[in-house]
Specification:
The protein has about 575 residues and is mostly beta strands. The protein is about 10% helix and about 40% strand. The chain folds into four domains: about 1-255, 3-Layer(aba) Sandwich (Rossmann fold), CATH 3.40.50.1820; about 265-360, Sandwich (Immunoglobulin-like); about 360-535, Sandwich (Jelly Rolls), CATH 2.60.120.260; about 545-585, no CATH class. The protein starts with a helix and ends in an 18-residue tail after the last strand.
Length: about 575
């Protein structure tokens, strides 16, 4: 297993001591990676991204055994002059079916292009074990920007999507490592490339009796499948003098290029899925301006112009950087913004981002709980250790949306949040925080919050606090406590039934931006699962007057405290004298 760490195939590629941990925020989540660029790199050089295995990380791979290797790979990187990046997965794992880590890899590419002027035609992706499974996932989603792919000990059940270009793919695996799964995984790609289904076989590959190379050449230009079969090898990287995994990957990938001629364009703002819920008695609401910012480049010329569209309406044409335009006084509704870049040859590229501005009296928040392993748009969770912002996905543990599978269940999806540390207010799920790119504006009036909450893994029911807080400053306007009557039992396949719908009424005194906050108990591993949540305005401010310096309001000849509960003027503790008048419009 020690050699598994050494797996630093490509990492070999560099003077590891000089590699620095870098940070990059993707979809509201801070991600990290290690990079290495040789001296005197020059411009338009290749990029190789390699993803670690399950329960590993980039640093582990880069710093074990490399310094004592008999074969130095430093010369590969320094001689061939390419940049290497080792990303870190979340929780030492990868989202091998969704888009969370696909978006991370795309963001890395964009940063490397900007930082090192990388040749977009020669970007390569590989991975070990679970990182290899991620690589297969990326083929269907990134073949337009990745020139070649390599999987080491990471077979997959992913098959080519319709219309995919011919794919250059190398797979490396030992015969003592579930080798029987490899050929079935490769067959769809061999067939897709259109060449012979009978491989050219080279035994004693590179003079190493333990290696056999299988080659399926493509019937179409630009594709090829190779398999390096390692006799009796287990779940690790081959580092023999004759067959060194890092060298083999590079020698395979360097033969392929995308030959891009079209431009590229992407939005840097606004954030995809930005939302603003505005509870108002009128539709004449003033929403904040939307700043559109895009980046664009062309591999074989220059960008002639970038056009911005709101739906089908052209709203701006820009002929030089910065490609920025401000949409003033945007209307309520869904805005699908497009940026279309046109280069000097007339070729185009398009990027899209969605912003949703909604005005109304009610909203069903649980309608966004539709993907297991995700944090929904608008939500932020914190467990005392890790903060997660929506939308992000690919989580297999910790706070996330759970999908329940039992035939007896009160809801199909639920947002799970927890308190890992036991500290006060250290476990929560909040809607409306800036980091989740959402805003909740409430006008004065009386509101009703209805919800269903279970415990996830607390045999002794743990109470939760529900709080309405100002977005700026965090002041609690109203709060309540609720102890769930159902504990699901730490298993999405378990039955659960009888979760109560709870109604919490409260009053908003002034128009402002607010947070809907759900806090676990202040105990280690206290938790909650929100399966249903609806906010509605019962009555807006017409007919409501606030009694200054007091603790109540009058509405239609009835008196209420600030939690929305009806009271009477004789109730002990109310300060309704001293010159304050109680009146109704």
């Amino acid at each position: 297993m020690k050699r598994l760490l050494s797996l630093l195939l490509l990492v070999a590629i560099c003077s590891i001591a000089s590699a620095q941990l870098q940070k990059l925020t993707v979809n509201g989540t801070e991600r990290t990676y290690l990079e290495y660029a040789p001296q005197k790199l020059g411009e338009n050089r290749p990029l190789f991204i390699f993803c670690h295995g399950y329960n590993q990380d980039a640093g582990w791979m880069m710093n074990n055994e490399f310094k004592n290797d008999k074969v130095s790979m430093e010369s590969v990187c320094d001689t061939a002059k390419f940049v290497v990046v080792f990303p870190n997965g979340i929780d030492r794992a990868w989202d091998v079916g969704g888009d969370r880590d696909i978006n991370f890899i795309k963001a890395i590419i964009e940063k490397m292009v900007k930082q090192y002027k990388i040749d977009r035609n020669r970007v390569y992706l590989g991975g070990f074990s679970m990182g290899g499974m991620l690589t297969y996932n990326a083929i269907n989603k990134m073949s337009d920007i990745i020139a070649a792919f390599v999987s080491c000990s990471g077979p997959s059940v992913v098959t080519p999507k319709a219309g995919l270009r011919p794919i250059p793919l190398m797979h490396i695996q030992g015969t003592a490592d579930n080798f029987g799964n490899v050929q079935p995984a490769l067959n769809p790609w061999i067939k897709h490339n259109g060449g012979s289904t009978t491989a050219k076989v080279i035994t004693n590959y590179n003079g190493f009796s333990g290696a056999t190379l299988h080659i399926w050449s493509s019937g179409k230009a630009g594709g090829e499948v190779q398999l390096i079969e390692l006799k009796d090898k287990g779940h690790w990287i081959c580092k023999e003098t004759q067959v060194y995994t890092g060298k083999e990957m590079w020698n395979f990938c360097k033969r392929f290029s995308l030959n891009f001629t079209a431009p590229s364009v992407s939005f840097t703002s606004p954030y995809p899925g930005t939302s603003h819920l505005f509870f108002s008695p009128t539709t004449s609401v003033t929403f904040p301006d939307i700043k559109l910012t895009a980046t664009a480049s062309d591999p074989n010329g220059k960008v002639a112009q970038v056009d911005f569209y709101d739906g089908s309406e052209l709203i701006a044409t820009l002929n030089k950087t910065p490609y920025t335009f401000t949409v003033e006084n945007p209307a309520a509704g869904e805005h699908i913004f497009k940026a279309i870049a046109t280069d000097n040859d007339g070729e185009t590229a398009e990027a899209k981002v969605v912003v949703n501005y909604k005005v109304g009296r009610s909203h069903m928040f649980h309608n966004d709980f539709t993907e297991g392993g995700s944090i929904p748009l608008g939500w932020t969770t914190y467990d005392g250790s890790e903060r997660r912002n929506g939308f992000s996905n690919g989580y297999s543990s910790g706070s996330r949306v759970l999908q329940f599978t039992s035939s007896t269940r009160d809801f199909e999806y639920g947002l799970y949040f927890r308190n890992q540390s036991g500290r006060q207010r250290a476990g929560y799920a909040k809607y409306g925080m800036a980091a989740s790119h959402s805003t909740l504006t409430l006008c004065p009036g009386k509101y009703m919050l209805r919800y269903k909450i279970c415990n996830w893994n607390n045999e002794e029911a743990a109470p939760l606090d529900i709080s309405i807080e100002k977005k700026t400053g965090g002041e609690a306007i109203a709060s309540t406590s609720y102890t769930p009557n159902v504990n699901i039992g730490n298993d999405v396949s378990k039955s659960f039934k009888g979760t109560r719908i709870i109604t919490f009424e409260f009053v908003i005194e002034e128009e402002d931006d607010y947070l809907l906050s759900f806090y676990t108990a202040d105990k280690v591993w206290a938790d909650g699962v929100i399966g249903y949540m609806m906010l509605a305005a019962k009555e807006y401010a017409s007919g409501i007057e606030i009694i200054h310096n007091s603790q109540c309001i009058m509405h239609k000849n009835a008196m209420y405290n600030l939690q929305g509960q009806r009271i009477n003027s004789m109730q002990k503790g109310l300060n309704i004298v001293g010159g304050n008048k109680i009146w109704v419009k």
